[in-house]
Amino acid sequence: MRDLHVPTTALAAAPVLTAPLTATLTAAEWQARAVAHLERAQRWTRPFRERRSRGEVHPVYDFLFQYYHYSGGRLETWHPGPEESIEDSPEARERFTAPVYETAGGVIRRNASALAPAERDTLHRVLHLLRATRDRPPNFGCYGIHEWAMVYGGHDVRHAEIAPLRLLQAEVDAFVESRPVACSHFDAFRFFAPAAKPMNRVPLTWATRDDSVQPGCIHANMDLYRWAYTAMPWIGSDLLWSCFELAVALRVLDMQAGPYDLEARGFAAVRVETPAGRDEYQRRQRELSVSANVLRTRLIDAVGGII
Hints:
This protein has 307 residues and is mainly alpha-helical. It is 49% helix and 5% strand.
């Protein structure tokens, strides 16, 4: 996981909260939940593993398993929500093991004291970033130009073999030069072509990378999946999965709005080089940000309840 740039005073100010248990799942209940989770996860993990075994790459979906460093096996493994405990049984004890889980009084529940100091510190930092992002005003005027800036001047067209440019290079360059470039996400900006970086109106550096993260950014909202799996298994698989599904939708929009030709893959271009395309991009960006705001709040509550 990348380091989070957070003032020490912010870590000290984070409140310590305790989430009460509200439900105890029977063996039949948790096993049904685990099977359902495995099935929905494998709809994504199996195709990725099959592509990888054949040496194939998907220009849209593989990002979710390569940029985000959470294995398919871990994504497939179900954990209860933070407010849920598990009815004690031999099968449950085999699956929900120490030190993360403890058994007492006929139920199995998480043992928050098992969090190592370094893990607790990381979660404090995640919580600070989530809160700071939530509290900033959103910007819906970037129009996904970061993907264009990455290939400006023919620099490192990463998907060239599997997703060629849908416009001539000169047309791509002209579009980048014609629009304000306002990327607020450092992990997108750092892949800009060298000649495109000075065009960005938002000053971004590694040292201040978290200071500009805002809730309208599709990459910041995609990163909710990163912060969710960073907080696993403590937050539970249902919230993790919601963040994964949102990341999928955001990644699709991200690539549809790029300069790549993905028609053969079934992705119609959102032609942000046109006024109609920019309108469509902004509309979908706003809709997805609403979902992201809900999940960000849930993550803030869940992570705050852990630490």
